[in-house]
From TrEMBL:
Xref: InterPro entries: DNA_mismatch_repair_MutS_C (IPR000432), DNA_mismatch_repair_MutS_sf (IPR036187), MutS (IPR045076), P-loop_NTPase (IPR027417)
Name used for this protein in its record: MutS-like protein
Signal peptide: none
PANTHER family: DNA MISMATCH REPAIR PROTEIN, DNA MISMATCH REPAIR PROTEIN MUTS FAMILY MEMBER
Keywords in alphabetical order: ATP-binding, DNA-binding, Nucleotide-binding
């Protein structure tokens, strides 16, 4: 299995996971019923796919559950008991100190929960919605073979809910936690997988997310309709596209016009699409990439005594090194070289953007306040230009957050400074 390359900076930029009092993209998709499902979902978020077939398969499974509006068939209380029981049983037959960590009652409850789970699972595999999804046929058949094994016959010979004798509980405990532990754990892992798929399918229905269509690696067509950032309650949706003839986008716009949010919306959609998950858009078609790297909120690297500008230089160097290996990458730089003077930033932005334009197997979005760079970059045919406009309502700037073609000419910084009364405060002091 091939996985999408990324790094901690990108994960931080996209705010994939909660931090302090800030929720993450993960939280939007996490509607799991089990601790194991929650853990598996985290793993999937950290390892997006980089193979078209694998992405297509996962998306098809989740879409099928969404179409059938499948409900998770297992009781949360049953799974809680099973997880507690199996977690404390890793060495039950070899280390008595492990076994005594559960009371006699807890062992009895655990055995009863496993019996109940196995019976419900077999019914789900034979007649549930999972039996209607061809992409899961191999896994379903393999698990049915495990459940039909002679070793687990006692489990299915016992009717769930029956009161078990002490001797029966002891016998089942040895069977479940020692002799056939691997089989039970394999079944539990399948439950976790279904938990993730069914819960994400529910989110797709609830939020009306769309399942993206992946193109072959090397096909640079990216097409988004109605894309928006999923964390925003009243987000403005935009259409956006890129291809090999315009694989670089130069994005401009005034402060607060929405550039960073737009970049997060696009890069989040690309990242989530590589997971095979539904995204916040009306329609999406995307090329499978080798990696995604964003630079939206780059901190100073004080640990090595690096200024913000030098941190930017090191970031560009890292991306250039990855590109030099021939990988197809999706790259975003928000306000490239903001940490230096305007002249150097202008020259650096032009030079780096032109360098990116030569890598036609990758896609780049570069945002900048330096609109003057746009005049030079227009000489390159495969660089497209978009901006987020500002409309003036008298002396008050208003933002549409709707993407337009061209280069912004908006310069409203001084208007905002004057509107806030900063100059009057500096001149006359604060008024009561």
């Amino acid at each position: 299995m091939m996985y999408l390359q990324t790094d901690d900076q990108t994960i931080e930029d996209l705010r994939l996971f909660a931090k302090r009092d800030q929720t993450g993209i993960y939280d939007i998709y996490n509607n799991t019923f089990t601790r194991g499902g929650e853990s598996l979902l985290q793993q999937l978020f950290k390892a997006p796919l980089a193979e078209r077939e694998a992405i297509t398969r996962r998306a098809a499974i989740i879409a099928a559950f969404a179409g059938m509006q499948t409900q998770f068939p297992f009781k949360g209380s049953t799974l809680d008991s099973v997880e507690k029981y199996m977690t404390h049983g890793g060495a039950a037959g070899n280390d008595a100190s492990q076994k005594i960590s559960l009371s006699e009652k807890e062992v009895g409850n655990g055995v009863a929960a496993v019996l109940d789970l196995m019976h419900v699972m077999k019914g789900f595999l034979l007649k549930g919605d999972v039996s209607k999804i061809p992409h899961l046929d191999d896994e379903r058949s393999a698990l049915l073979t495990v459940l039909d094994s002679a070793e687990l016959a006692p489990v299915f010979n016992e009717r769930p809910g029956n009161k078990l004798s002490y001797a029966a509980v002891t016998a089942f405990d040895v069977l479940i936690r020692v002799r056939e532990r691997d089989k039970i754990m394999a079944a539990l892992q399948f439950v976790y997988q279904m938990d993730v798929f069914i819960s994400v399918a529910g989110i797709a229905n609830q939020r009306k997310f769309v399942f993206p269509v992946p193109n072959s690696k090397g096909d640079s067509l990216l097409k988004l309709e109605g894309v928006y950032h999923p964390e925003l309650k009243e987000a403005v949706a935009n259409d956006f596209g890129m291809n090999s003839q315009s694989n670089v986008v130069f994005l401009t716009g005034a402060n607060m016009a929405g550039k960073s949010t737009f970049l997060r919306a696009i890069s989040t959609a690309m990242y989530i699409a590589h997971m095979g998950f539904p995204v916040a858009a009306k329609k999406m078609e995307f090329p499978v990439m080798d990696g995604i790297y964003t630079t939206i909120n780059l901190p100073d690297n004080l640990g090595i005594g690096a200024s913000h500008f030098y941190a930017e230089v090191l970031r560009v160097k890292k991306v250039a090194t990855e590109l030099s290996t021939g990988k197809s990458l999706f790259i975003i730089f928000d306000e490239l070289f903001r940490g230096t003077n305007v002249k150097d930033a202008n020259e650096g932005t032009i030079a780096v953007t032109l360098g990116f334009a030569g890598r036609t197997n990758s896609l780049f979005i570069i945002s900048s306040h330096i609109v003057e760079a746009g005049e030079v970059l227009k000489q390159k045919e495969n660089i497209a230009f978009h901006f987020l406009p500002t409309r003036m309502n008298g002396h008050v700037p208003e933002y549409t957050y709707r993407l337009e073609e061209g280069v912004s000419e908006d310069r409203h910084g001084m208007i905002i400074i004057r509107n806030e009364g900063i100059l009057d405060t500096l001149k006359n002091g604060k008024k009561d």
